Amino acid sequence: MAEPVTPLVTKSDVAYDKVREKILSGEFPPGSVINQATLARSIGISTTPLREALRRLKAEGLVELGAHRDAKVTELRAEENRDLLEMRRSLDPLAASLAAQRRTGEDIAEIRASLEGLRAMPENPDYEHLLHHRRYHRAIYRASHNDLLVEALDGLWDKADRYRRFALEVDRGPEARAKKDEEHRMLAEAIIAGDSDGAAAVMTEHIDTSLATQATRRLSR
């Protein structure tokens, strides 16, 4: 049997991952200017692969590129967050419903594993908190076995993480965090039990009381 081919990781890929992490973790906050020469030196690459990485991030709406050597992290906008919420209110419950209908034993194992130790995000979450939260939701998306739906929700998640962090600048309190923990548990249980209507209902409630919803209210003031 042939050995599996290991995907080639380029310098541009490395730069993309590093800059994306800095943006989503809040190290590069919205509106901040990224000096390409300085950043390239800190990563240990030339500006050419960094520029390629920034073009990918621009396509994802995370940075803006000027005509010269600087880039700027995209500002948060109430309109964009509203658009993200409108799409997620439709697509997330659909994914949860399909997951309850189509989940396999492997999907159930991944959902359970991703739920282990998952807690509602605290103020100023680190990147690992964001990744754990994403792993749980992506396990649900993947259990839908609808590749186009998974791709669409993955793209929305990247943008939404910045609005979650913005909402967490105001402490939501222990009761609200406990409610989110309970929703995560109930959602997993409904999917594992094959309750498609119940899963969709829990997911709808999860979106309607989400950090992104709180961010919309703050941005609209």
TrEMBL record:
Keywords: DNA-binding, Transcription, Transcription regulation. PROSITE patterns: HTH_GNTR (PS50949). SMART domains: FCD, HTH_GNTR. The keyword Transcription regulation applies. Residues 9-76 form the HTH gntR-type domain. GO terms for molecular function: DNA binding; DNA-binding transcription factor activity. Gene3D superfamilies: GntR ligand-binding domain-like, Winged helix-like DNA-binding domain superfamily/Winged helix DNA-binding domain. PANTHER family: GLUCONATE OPERON TRANSCRIPTIONAL REPRESSOR, TRANSCRIPTIONAL REGULATOR, GNTR FAMILY. This is Transcriptional regulator, GntR family.
